[in-house]
Design goal:
The chain is mainly α. Helices cover about 75% and strands about 0% of the residues. The protein is elongated and about 75 Å long.
C-alpha cells in the first residue's frame, strides 16, 4: 500500500505555496553549498601558501616568498572573513562578533523551513541580497585564484624551493 502525504488540514497553505517554499529552500541550499566550497578552497590555498613560506624561510628568497605569501593569505582571509565569522570559538562568541553571510543565509533557511506558508517577499528579497553579496565574494576568490595564486607560484618556482625539504 503506497504512502500518501497530505497537508495539515488546519492550514490554508496551497501546493503552490509549498512549491515556492521548496524552490527558495533549494536556492538557499545551493548558494550555501557554493559558499562552503569556497571556504574549503580558501583554507586549502592558505595552507599551501603557508607551507611554501615555511619551506622557504631558510633560503635566499625567504623574504620575497614571505611577502608574496602574506599578500596572498591576506586576500584569502579578507574573503573568508566576509563569508563567515572566523573569530567564533564558542556559543558566547556569537554575541561578541557580527554574523556574516554564512550565518545570515543559514538563518534565512531556518526561518523558511519552519513556516507553513509561501516565502514572504522579504525572504525573497533577503535571499537575493545575500546571494548577490556571496557572489561578489566568490568572484573575488576567482580573481585571487586567477591572478594572485599564479603570481605566488611563479615566485616559488623562481626561488627554486625544494618540494620536499630535508
Amino acid at each position: 500500500m503506497p504512502i500518501v502525504v497530505t497537508p495539515d488540514p488546519r492550514l490554508t497553505t496551497t501546493a503552490e505555496d509549498f512549491a515556492a517554499q521548496t524552490a527558495l529552500g533549494l536556492k538557499i541550499r545551493d548558494t550555501h553549498s557554493d559558499l562552503n566550497r569556497a571556504v574549503n578552497r580558501i583554507r586549502a590555498l592558505r595552507e599551501q601558501a603557508n607551507g611554501w613560506v615555511s619551506r622557504a624561510k631558510n633560503g635566499a628568497s625567504a623574504e620575497a616568498i614571505a611577502t608574496a605569501g602574506k599578500a596572498l593569505v591576506d586576500k584569502l582571509d579578507a574573503i573568508e572573513g566576509e563569508l563567515l565569522q572566523v573569530k567564533v570559538q564558542s556559543v558566547q562568541d556569537t554575541l561578541n562578533y557580527p554574523v556574516r553571510l554564512n550565518t545570515k543565509l543559514a538563518t534565512l533557511g531556518g526561518a523558511l523551513e519552519t513556516a507553513d506558508s509561501a516565502p514572504t517577499r522579504q525572504m525573497e528579497d533577503l535571499y537575493d541580497n545575500l546571494a548577490e553579496r556571496i557572489g561578489e565574494q566568490l568572484k573575488a576568490l576567482g580573481a585571487v585564484v586567477a591572478q594572485d595564486v599564479p603570481a605566488f607560484n611563479a615566485a616559488v618556482q623562481q626561488a627554486s624551493i625544494p618540494a620536499v625539504a630535508g
